[in-house]
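re: that chain from earlier
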Amino acid sequence: MDKQKRRQRKPLPKMDSEKNVAIYEKFKIEPDLLYSHLMELNTGVIAIIMTIIV
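^ sequence. v structure.
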Protein backbone atom coordinates (compact mmCIF):
# COMPACT_ATOMS: atom_id res chain seq x y z
CA MET A 1 0.00 0.00 0.00
CA ASP A 2 1.16 3.46 -0.81
CA LYS A 3 0.81 5.95 1.96
CA GLN A 4 -0.16 9.46 1.03
CA LYS A 5 2.15 12.12 2.23
CA ARG A 6 0.54 14.61 4.51
CA ARG A 7 1.09 18.23 3.76
CA GLN A 8 3.22 19.70 6.43
CA ARG A 9 2.45 23.20 7.54
CA LYS A 10 5.17 25.72 7.70
CA PRO A 11 5.89 26.67 11.28
CA LEU A 12 4.49 30.00 12.33
CA PRO A 13 7.07 32.70 12.71
CA LYS A 14 7.97 33.36 16.30
CA MET A 15 6.68 36.65 17.56
CA ASP A 16 7.93 38.64 20.44
CA SER A 17 6.08 37.99 23.66
CA GLU A 18 4.83 41.58 23.98
CA LYS A 19 2.91 41.25 20.75
CA ASN A 20 1.45 37.91 21.86
CA VAL A 21 0.32 39.43 25.14
CA ALA A 22 -1.29 42.35 23.28
CA ILE A 23 -3.20 39.97 21.00
CA TYR A 24 -4.29 37.86 23.97
CA GLU A 25 -5.52 40.92 25.85
CA LYS A 26 -7.44 42.12 22.78
CA PHE A 27 -9.30 38.85 22.27
CA LYS A 28 -9.63 37.80 25.92
CA ILE A 29 -13.20 39.13 26.16
CA GLU A 30 -14.25 37.61 22.82
CA PRO A 31 -16.32 34.72 24.31
CA ASP A 32 -18.26 37.14 26.51
CA LEU A 33 -19.04 39.37 23.55
CA LEU A 34 -20.16 36.41 21.47
CA TYR A 35 -22.48 35.24 24.26
CA SER A 36 -24.06 38.66 24.67
CA HIS A 37 -24.56 39.06 20.91
CA LEU A 38 -26.21 35.65 20.66
CA MET A 39 -28.52 36.49 23.56
CA GLU A 40 -29.54 39.75 21.88
CA LEU A 41 -30.19 37.92 18.61
CA ASN A 42 -32.28 35.35 20.46
CA THR A 43 -34.33 38.09 22.12
CA GLY A 44 -34.90 39.77 18.77
CA VAL A 45 -36.05 36.55 17.11
CA ILE A 46 -38.46 35.84 19.97
CA ALA A 47 -39.85 39.38 19.71
CA ILE A 48 -40.47 38.96 15.98
CA ILE A 49 -42.18 35.60 16.51
CA MET A 50 -44.39 37.04 19.26
CA THR A 51 -45.31 39.97 16.98
CA ILE A 52 -46.32 37.59 14.17
CA ILE A 53 -48.38 35.46 16.54
CA VAL A 54 -50.27 38.44 17.92
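The helical segments are 17-27, 30-53.
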